[in-house]
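Complex 545.
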Amino acid sequence: MFGLMQDSQLLIAGIIRHAARNHAHAEVVSKNVDGSIHRYGYPALEARARRLARALARLNIKATDRVGTLAWNGFRHLELYYGVSGSGAICHTINPRLAPADIAYIVNDAGDRLIFADITFAPLLAAIAEHIKAGVRAIVFMCDPAEMPQMALPAGMDLLCYESLMAESDDDYVWPSFDERNAASLCYTSGTTGRPKGVLYSHRSTVLHAMATNVPDVFGLRAQDRVLPVVPMFHVNAWGTPYSAPMAGASLIMPGRHLDGPSLSALINQEHVTMSAGVPTIWMGLLAHLRSSGERIDTVRRLGVGGSACPRMLMQAFEQEYGVTIVHAWGMSETSPVASANAPTPDSLTLTGEAAWRVRDKQGQALFGIEMKIVGNGGMELPWDGVAQGDLLVRGPWVASGYWGNAAGSACDEDGWFATGDVATIDPSGRMEITDRSKDVIKSGGEWISSITLENIAVEHPDVIEAAIIAARHPKWDERPLLLVVPRAGAEIVPEELLKIYEGKIAKWWLPDAVIVVDELPHTATGKLHKLTLRQKYQDWLTRE
Ligand code: ADP
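Predicted structure with adenosine-5'-diphosphate bound:
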């Protein structure tokens, strides 16, 4: 017997309709490409998204057609999020930091019909236009007519202006209703190994993920919050904040292209930001700026940090020096992305000192809706004792079941478990800790050493800006850890001195065998360490003649 409750569909347009109707007070503030500030509220955003949906129909975009975006965080990108998905088409956010050849591959693989782009990406589009002309019918620059870049496009590909299309359109449009399981947006993984793969989110997965991240122990957004998504809208939908903020009635502050410490500090203070989210590298940049300038960010209550392990020193610095709580979360493109977050619990609150910080290092408990487990050889489930390390598997309504172009279910096992490629422990309190990506783990004499633990300790050294641990071949132990560090400007690193930072913090056999000082470390398009490049270059360091 079914319950006697209504069964309305969980659709993305429903989020913006809700915000427009119930939270007209909230602001959407955007820093434009030219540095000027644009401001409006959710009613105007919702009306413009409808106008855009009409314009898309005139451009012959139909349900399930893919519409690409190459854009920073800003109001027009938000309009695309709602106008494209809300009309039943698929909003495909493209990471402009990928190599041009990868971008062309992604556009063709997705079958994008239109590409909406910020004018900063005109040179990039000029470079790849020939390679995407088979499917792309027009490039639409997200600007006023006066700002339109001049460029020649291949025959059959139109050059259009966003604000002209909007002016010619109208908002006489009613959001359609359809099955909540329909595709809403598409985002490619950055592809550190192999070709990028598309993750195809549904309306239902997007709405559920936004609701799940809005609980108090995750991002906990409220109508009084002013949220700054520093994480780009082309990186797993800015972790869902373009949906979770309007759902909560919170204001959105969109930072545009400048994400350096001084720009962020200025925007946070001008706009009284209360909550923000981004990868650790961004916060390291902001911290360095705050410390050197003496500026404060007193309106900020919480920072959501994920994408890479959050170094303990970052949490300590923001909490102790600036009174900002860091919410350490974990996830990946395939999990929408947020799947776990570390929140204080009655037992953790009784801890002090090192024991309390050890708990904070972890990536936390599964969000309601997500199930996690760790497995060892042969897929045997491992105990939640905080010690056993195994492959992390997850499942839930916002976890991918297959990649773009493949069948549903093809990315997970028959019980729906998706192998994350991460290695983790889970403690008796349910707190999961990522120790490595499975391809980065160091196997020394048959035992595993966590590169993330060693990197986090290295960056606690005052002379180290960034650190990477990779596995180097070893004749006796198979692999041993090698530490690469980028020194602070002007600092002289003495390897023996630097390694003292590990004393008392790790088992002796985890100590890196060598330290290599480098000017910079390679990063992927999503800002993570590119360990593959490092391994190719340094894996024979310990066995070299
Ligand atoms: P890609 O998989 O293409 O690199 P994602 O953004 O999907 O891009 O990256 C997901 C991966 O990032 C996870 O599988 C994990 O290895 C890493 N990651 C994300 N958040 C954390 C975190 N809080 N701590 C450690 N690693 C993390």
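The CA atoms of residues 205 and 398 lie 5 Å apart.
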